[in-house]
């Protein structure tokens, strides 16, 4: 796209679901606060145009009559307009139809059996499955979700999808490990994990990506939050990425966050069809530590790909001023040498922040990019 | 061959307890109902440990948010910090922050032990963080060197053990994954040894165990063998049993023979074969069988199945002794 501005802005993943959506999906009549938020959001964003009957029924306390799917449609429209209103160049639906990024994809496949809950920390848990047979895709997923976004988005749509390495890492490996002979030590586990990742990539991810591309999806972010868990398995992350995207034509990016990126380099750079690295930086950028210095490693290895630059921290409510965002962009340019390779975005999905904070952080992202753009386009100003 | 089995760390919460704690966070149940769920799950763990012939009971440490929190929340000099990844897992702990040289709060840890331990201290296995792992994973802003902190924590844990000894407890396990993940050398290794000497003094001939996991123990074996403890444990999913050098005597040997990283059940016969292979090479005075790491990396049901594997292996090994 030649008409794209310098430092275009994009969303990176999830957005908190509004109260009215949560209550509406459960079939509960909206409480006063939820009704007020829905009405105010629609006044501001006019997102429910064309969906007035569903909106009106929700406002009238008739959630059950609306049905979960229609409420999710409204939620997706809200997130689209929310992102677009902040001035983002690439948007999605804030993952309005998704509850999480593991269980849903796994439930679209055969070969898995859910085992129960594992504690992530404190009283937070996640449901974890074991692969007990060869992976088989029941049907490509996220396709209807993308269709809806494509029909309604004004800005360019970008679809996020959980990558094969993360799906494997967050599962127990029974089937492939059982095929390893002898004592199941580290070498056996690694060999089994490679088979699992590649099977997931070839049998589930690739057909899904192919179906999405057939429906017009051009920009796809493959999320690999588990990539940093075991840096010595960075080659498996790459193998999964390459197998999932083999022979496919789209703009692929890889999102990795809260990881020691240097430990993943240079192995990660072998991801062949990855056009953009979408990484988290702002969270680690402090008074005493330059969170963007790792970009120097990309330069050292001669990697010339785009960077989706995390310029706002999604784990803090404090909103970064646009001047700080602009300064972070300038620093990134110094490391990368080429302003044309930089996109700006939040570090990660904004679902942990309130909608008010998320809006302010996205607005700061766009405003900061505008400030930096003015400097680079008019360097003497 | 004297073989003992037991839990070496936290057991997963039951699905009922998961539901209760979630409901509490969402305001859908009462603290009293959650307390009942905790007690029911703890009773179930103790019942399992007893029925399966384990050497000690733990109650599963179901209430501990993570290995460090009871200390980070109660000892002087500590604060509770941000979430950090627990080694190579998708689970997290809150990083202890050392704002000043630490000091012990007498009785604070005893009050946080699972009720099952407190009710029958002679049968209980007290599981605490080892000084090296606690110091190494804390954010040290105290102004003291890391070596000094390791040594000081060893002394404090020694005092804690002496206190618990006076309350009737006799078996103390220190979880030390960092000893194999980042084996200490030089002054840090000296500090570890000094710390464990203090712990041994506090234990006053009680049983002390150091349990490692998460990496190949071979590079740390030299240090582990010098520790003044009853036994040290290694994770056989990470350490190749055939790589253990021959050595007769020394402390007892703990073997992590069930892997909490997979729901795939181990074959008890294969476990027995490996244990015999290791025993033949080292002839330790005692063998302690346990999970290779915290079993709460698994849900309740698969973790329970792993405990049955431990019991079956111990029984087979004991019967082998008699024939």
Structural description of this entry:
- The complex is a heterodimer of chains A (about 375) and B (about 325).
- Chain A has about 375 residues and is an alpha/beta fold.
- Chain A has a single domain (about 80-375), classed as TIM Barrel (Alpha-Beta Barrel).
- Chain A is about 45% helix and about 15% strand.
- Chain A contains 15 helices and eleven strands.
- In chain A, strand 10 (about 305-310), helix 14 and strand 11 (about 340-345) form a beta-alpha-beta unit.
- Chain A is globular, with a radius of gyration of 21 Å.
- The model of chain A has no long low-confidence stretch (mean pLDDT about 95).
- Chain B contains twelve helices and ten strands.
- In chain B, about 45% of the residues lie in helices and about 20% in strands.
- In chain B, helix 10 links the parallel strand 7 (about 205-210) and strand 8.
- In chain B, the strands form two sheets. In chain B, strands 1-10-9-8-7-6-4 form a seven-stranded parallel β-sheet.
- The radius of gyration of chain B is 19 Å and the shape is globular.
- Chain B has one domain: Alpha-Beta Barrel (TIM Barrel).
- The interface of A and B includes residues 123, 174 and 183 of A.
What secondary-structure arrangement, pairings included, does this model have?
The complex is a heterodimer of chains A (381) and B (323).
Chain A: H1 19-25, H2 32-45, H3 52-59, H4 63-66, H5 68-85, E1 90-91, H6 103-107, E2 109-121, E3 124-137, H7 143-152, E4 156-157, E5 159-162, H8 164-169, E6 172-173, H9 175-178, H10 186-214, E7 219-223, H11 234-245, E8 251-256, H12 261-264, E9 274-279, H13 295-300, E10 306-312, H14 322-336, E11 342-346, H15 355-377
Parallel strand pairs in A: 1-4, 3-6, 5-7, 7-8, 8-9, 9-10, 10-11
Antiparallel strand pairs in A: 2-3
Chain B: E1 3-5, H1 15-25, H2 31-51, H3 69-74, E2 76-85, E3 92-103, H4 108-112, H5 115-119, E4 125-129, H6 131-137, E5 139-140, H7 146-166, E6 171-175, H8 178-181, H9 186-203, E7 207-211, H10 221-226, E8 231-235, E9 252-258, H11 268-282, E10 287-291, H12 300-322
Parallel strand pairs in B: 1-10, 3-5, 4-6, 6-7, 7-8, 8-9, 9-10
Antiparallel strand pairs in B: 2-3
